[in-house]
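tool=predict chain=A
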Amino acid sequence: MAETATKLPIKTEKKAPAAPTPAVWAPLEALHGEINRLFETFGGGSWRLPFGRRAFELDLSWPGGMSWGVAPAVDVSEKDKQYDITAELPGLTEKDIEVKTSNGVLTIKGEKKEEKEEREKNYYLSERRYGSFVRSFRLPEGVDADKIEATFAKGVLTVVLPKSAEAQKSEKKITVKAA
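tool=predict ok
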């Protein structure tokens, strides 16, 4: 039986952004900084992705703690008429995920709560696991924020950021001529 994707509501906030929370835990932060400096000097700081982050830049800080230890895997791709963001979120349901836009920033939040209890004749087992994550992306210019859609199926969240008609028209292919 095929599983259908569930559409998630996109919340839009108009209030000013809150001050960033200081990083509680940042593994390999020094190595991260050194690698960033290496690529900045190598490429003159010009290795940028569509969402304003430098290539190879990872956000390893987790304010608020996260039992998964690292950020969930996220892929960002650009197509002719849209940008796609896909995030692998195994073990979560659409009720555990929140997607919203505010002041030109797309934020994906998730929280996992798992409790397990077993009672047998010789033992009693009780386990609890809690964790949350937040990933934010600056919306690229030309995205129609009112038409952003999010779907969740088989543990994968897909957020579609459609380009506005003006952004699609502004692209122009330039022919390369032999010298």
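Residues 26-60 form one domain. The two ends are 58 Å apart (CA to CA).
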